[in-house]
Amino acid sequence: ELLSHIINDLFAQHLKLAVRVLFVLGNPKAIRQGIRYLENDMNRMFCGAYQQLAQDDETHRAVQLEQCTSQFFQQSQPEAKRYHYDLHTAIRASLLPVFALFPYQTQPYDDFLIQSLNAADLDALVYHNAVGKTFTHFTAERFQAASSTLELGKAKPFGQNDLSEFASTDQMLRAVLAEQILPVRAKHTIRQFKVIDSILKQSDDFQLQLNADAPNFSTFQKGEVIATQQVSNYVANDQQVWILFPNPNVKTGLRAGLILKEIK
Q: Are 125 and 48 members of one domain?
């Protein structure tokens, strides 16, 4: 909905476009059904990872996205700065409602990207610690784009969302598109976290020691059991850790959560 309003304003010339831009709806068939994905999580299919899966509508869509994104960036000027804002909504509540994730990279993260996320009144930034198969990792690795995934809170069906809740992100994106001054941050100082581990579901008896509706950024203290399964239990080793994207229902062999440590 947020992108729809921006695109409509561009066509109506209510918003001046000062940069080249590509708008993408990641998984239209899933969007129509109000679900995240049909068979497999598309955001684990990039950098060629779709080749390891049985072909279906979503693997074909991942190929399309890689192709159209490649064409878009290859047609840009070599010296042009490249940015990728991948907008997501959550399937669960969050103690820090809006946040961004950066794909793992060895070079410093782009200053303007961080400034823009700060201006969007995000509550937290999360830095990945390992190479991934996400759309943002694809654009960062292949095209040196300054990329981030924005988690914008728990969404309702189309037409039922209060878009004022996304106003800060909307204002930031409009400023970026029009090359205008970024809005002034209104919230407290943004918090920063780094991923220190991933919890893998290795057997069908896997369980997370959380309520089913536990929010993102739930915390565990040192020595507390976070997950149990036949192979071994996962215990918090640091004084305090946070869990992100806990999901015991993923397929065996997939990630069931990220463990975070706050960067002070």
A: yes
pTM: 0.93
- In a domain? residue 107: yes
| Dist CA 209 CA 248 (whole Å) | 10
Q: Where are the alpha helices (DSSP H) in 164-236?
A: 167-178
- Could you report the per-residue pLDDT of 199-234, keeping only the tens digit for each? 999 999 999 999 989 999 999 999 999 999 998 999
How far does Cα 203 stand from its chain's mean position? 26
User: Does one domain contain both 161 and 207?
Assistant: no
Does some domain include residue 36? Answer: yes
- What is the C-alpha to C-alpha distance for residues 6 and 42, in angstroms, rounded to an integer? 24
- Domain-terminating residue out of 178, 213, 247: 178
Residue 240 belongs to domain spanning: 196-263
Reported as a single tens digit per residue, the pLDDT across 62-104 is: 899 999 999 999 998 888 999 999 999 877 899 999 999 999 9
Is 132 inside any structural domain?
A: yes
Are 120 and 166 in a shared domain?
yes
d(CA 264, CA 261): 9
Contacts made by residues 241-247, CB under 8 angstroms, sequence distance 24+: 241/196, 242/193, 242/217, 242/218, 243/199, 243/210, 243/216, 243/217, 243/218, 243/219, 244/126, 244/195, 244/216, 244/217, 245/216, 246/92, 246/208, 246/210, 246/214, 246/216, 246/218
How many domains in the chain?
2
7 and 58 assigned to the same domain: yes
Cα dist from 43 to 26, 27, 63, 88, 187, whole Å: 9, 10, 12, 11, 30
Q: Catalytic site residue 165?
A: no
- Tell me whether residue 10 is in a domain: yes
Q: Which of 39, 66, 151, 224 is catalytic?
A: 151
